[in-house]
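Hi,

I'm pasting everything inline rather than attaching a file, because the server keeps stripping attachments. The sequence lines come first, and each chain or strand is labelled.
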Amino acid sequence: MNQYIGKAMPRYDAQGQVSGKVRYVDDIKVPGMKCVKVLRSPVHKGVIRGLDFSKAMAVPGVVGFVTAQDIPGKNAYGRFQDMPVLAPDNRVRYRGEPIAAVVAVDQDTALEALSLVEMDIEEQTPVFDMFEAMKPGAPLVRHDSKSNLWVHYPPDITEVTMVKGQVDQGMAQADQVIEGRYSTGVQDHVPMESNVSVAYRDEMGRLVIHTVSQTIYAHLGMLCAILAMPMSQIRYIGGQVGGAFGGKNDIHTDHIAALAVLKFGYPVKYRLTREEDLQFTTKRGAFVLDFKTGVKKDGRLTACRIDIWHDTGAYAGMSPYGLEKCAMFAPGPYDFPHIKVTARTIFTNRPISSSMRGFSVINGQVASEIHMNRVAEALGMDPWELRFVNAWRDGDHGVTGYKVRGAGALEAMKKAAELAGIKLPEKLMSMSSRGRQAS
Amino acid sequence: MTHILSFTLNGAPVQALVKTSDSLLDVLREKLDVTSPKRGCDSGDCGACTVMLEGKAVRACLTCALTVEGKQVVTVEGLSHNGKLQPLQEAFVSHGGSQCGFCTSGMLVSATALLAKNPHPQRHEIAQEMSGNLCRCGCYEEITQAILDTARKGD
Ligand code: FES
Ligand code: FES
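And the predicted assembly:
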């Protein structure tokens, strides 16, 4: 073991990568492989009144269509099991929601077939803004729910609340209270490799799926539920991923490719083009964060009140989980004696949001750090000093009561200053995360 | 309309049956099973499909297959000789110039073309010449180091 510690080791697959030998999923070819493409909702919200595949079926080279009726198991997947594989009840809730899949000899044929499907869709009023979606009487994104708020704790708690101390008391002790609203937008991961699956039956009759999943064991379980198959009958092969960044934490193509194999028996490839990948895969969802911070003249923080709204789009993805992370870390690595955070996840008719690098912790950090600069400005204090004075020391407590061990914000800031060529005063440089007294 | 296309790929003559609308990338990946050029965007934006055409780095997804008739095409498969990596490939390995590796083939081809043209590039020249190759894993600095290192050792 010691021979590796402290040494830069080459990646295990670097030799293969630089010689072009590594095989990614899109590099796999199976004899007789057909192409899968998906019919998607052209509207942001609607009810499908009729679907006619007859013209599309007449195109030479079309094998057939897969619809929700062909799903042997659960037509739902995802961390919160709320994303349908194919529109289950003839309802669509975002533009691009999968409705049916076509299997054809090649991509051109598949696309021609899709263009010939006759769809009668009744468009309904969508809602795109979180605050509009929360108003009483707003159009419901999910017709079967009571409101557009995700229920974090059944039966009906829609708010995540985290409390440390008494925030009102903390605000009363402050010399100044500084408020600010921050919002972060939707982001796509754009891995260089778009989502793709190759699926077929092996000689033993088992279903083989070559996947780009970054969460292979979780996804295998979800596939078993969708396909109503035991794990022993699915060979789920992954590991060679052309970038993911959280975007391949949700299934995008494996389930539909697998259903096509189950229905028609042919090997298939289902690959998203760059345009499809950008439009139809999960995103980092939008956030709005309100910060209210109490501070003493000497720069010591007294209290922090944070309100968070998170737009998850039409389905939950991993957003409720991300939201909890956001809530927990939004105060930043600073010692607030009193904190209260409330946060909620809201449905809109936008594309699904889910995980992306750092989950949603980042969204809280963006707001928190901009807000710290504002606090410093209001106090007329150097922003470095404000951060140094308040940064976590070992033994401080976070909002959920966890005890901070191995704190490192001070050391990280010192290093950052050094790299940026900023000379910090000795008073700050002598501070250490090992304790507040030591400073 | 199909045509028989003949060209030289990594030093050996090849032929393929192609449609007028096929790109060089379609032919390499789908017909000839040469998969190192990647289909990152299929629209000329990412550089993952970069190959060498007559010594120049080009985007295979934007190159009409029929235009390479009789010409020399080199991909990463053709860079190493008898399984021995070129110094640039070695430098990518030792500097950590690849993470997921999906951009790597295109990066190597562009960098090879760059070094052939300019054996001692400055940092800003590397940035300029490699600007058409995207790496979402963010290996830009490591790739720059690998190119600088290769140029240094080439003396
Ligand atoms: S695939 Fe050719 S530039 Fe992206
Ligand atoms: S190494 Fe992943 S995109 Fe460059």
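Residues A 192, 243; B 98-104, 135-137, 139 surround FE2/S2 (inorganic) cluster (ligand 2) (CB under 6 Å).

If the labels don't parse on your end, tell me and I'll reformat.
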